[in-house]
Amino acid sequence: MDKKEIKEILQEIEKEKNIGIEEGSDIDWKELLNKAWNGRKFIVVATAVFMALGLFSALTMTRQYTSTVTLVPELGKSSSSSSLSSITSMLGLGGMSMGASADAYNITVYPDVVASTPFTTNLFKMRVKDPEEEIDTTLVGYLTREKFSLSPAAIIGSITKPIFALFANDSLSTKSVTDINIFKLTKKQDKVVQYLNKAIQVEVDKKTGQTTIQVTMDNPVIAATVADTVCKHLREYIIDYRTKKAREDLANYNKIADESYQRYLKATKAYAYYQDHNRGLILNAVISEGSRLANEVQIASQLYQQMKAQAEMARGKVIDEKPVFAIIQPASVPLRAANSRAKVLIIWTFIGFALSCAWVLYGKEYWKKGKTMLNEIRSKG
């Protein structure tokens, strides 16, 4: 057998392999189309049923509206040390150190701050208003209101709730959710906190510091109101934290300055009284007492001046430490709902069509095979 014959044999074997692969991977589309056509009534009925369920779900679902606020906080103050040093030089306190000014509060903790229980419960008493829907109440009052729903559970609950209310304990049922004890929340308060943690989402870009606050509610006006309030409270929280040390220093320096001023007044009064009652006397004891009182006045004056300068420095640091927030996208009332009814209807219809087609093309056949195998197993047993 020469090389040419071997080459022809190998080519024939390769052709047979390719033909086997093509035959094995070939799908009989004609048979599938015939199955689908024969089961068209079932497919149409099943799709129509799922479409009806989707329409009911779309009409009865709660519309959700999302309001977004975008802000960029100040990440650091590179010029704070230079500005403070210039103030110290103007006051003649060039050697005084006020400490390094740095952004001690990392922007990555902003989501944790908003999700914390103290921050969330602080939103309970905020007023929410929507004149068109005749809403004027607190946020917790709005979230715990009785809502009408067409779901079977809601309908049964609306019937049974008045009956069970007759046997309920009045002292427990009338307890206000606004009486908050953060250490021990009630079940109703905890549910409101969990709902708000899901409704309020905060995302932070670590590189740019851009913070996005998204609030999702079933009322567009209230969603925008809550988003604006959350942004305001977060800014106040960060400002309070960043300026806390400087404000404490300012309070301490003002206190010491007031005490040193009272000491200065007392020393000047004592020195004036001494001069009025010892005028013309040349006794050594009198002269020595006069020198001592004059030194006390000078020391008290210097101490008061230094403490006053320290207080002014602390006042400037409070202003300098206050971070600046740039609001890129303020809160606004969303015009469109976040969840689309058309999308819900399309999803339900597609699921019905896909399931009915799968049943007609494959499910019915496998069901019959499985049923036959089960009958054979039972007959043998």
DSSP strand content: 5-15%
Question: What is the residue-averaged pLDDT?
Answer: 77
Task: Please summarize the sheet with the most strands.
Answer: 4 strands, antiparallel
Percent helix among the residues?
A: 55-70%
From N to C, what is the helix and strand string? Answer: HHHEHHHEEHHHHEEHHEH
N-to-C terminal Cα separation, in Å?
Answer: 61 Å
* Strand order across the largest sheet: 4-5-1-6
Count of extended strands: 6
Number of helices: 13
Integer-rounded radius of gyration: 40 Å
Query: What would you call the shape?
Result: elongated
Which structural class do you get from the secondary structure elements?
A: alpha+beta
Write structural notes for this entry.
This protein has a 4-stranded antiparallel beta sheet with strand order 4-5-1-6. It has helices at 3-25, 29-38, 40-60, 80-91, 110-115, 117-121, 139-143, 152-165, 170-173, 187-199, 220-277, 284-321, 341-380; strands at residues 65-73, 127-130, 135-138, 200-204, 211-217, 325-329. It is elongated. The model is unreliable at 21-25, 78-104 and 148-175 (pLDDT under 50). The protein contains 13 helices and 6 strands. The chain is an alpha+beta fold. α3 (40-60) packs across α13 (341-380). A hairpin with a 4-residue loop joins β2 (127-130) and β3 (135-138).
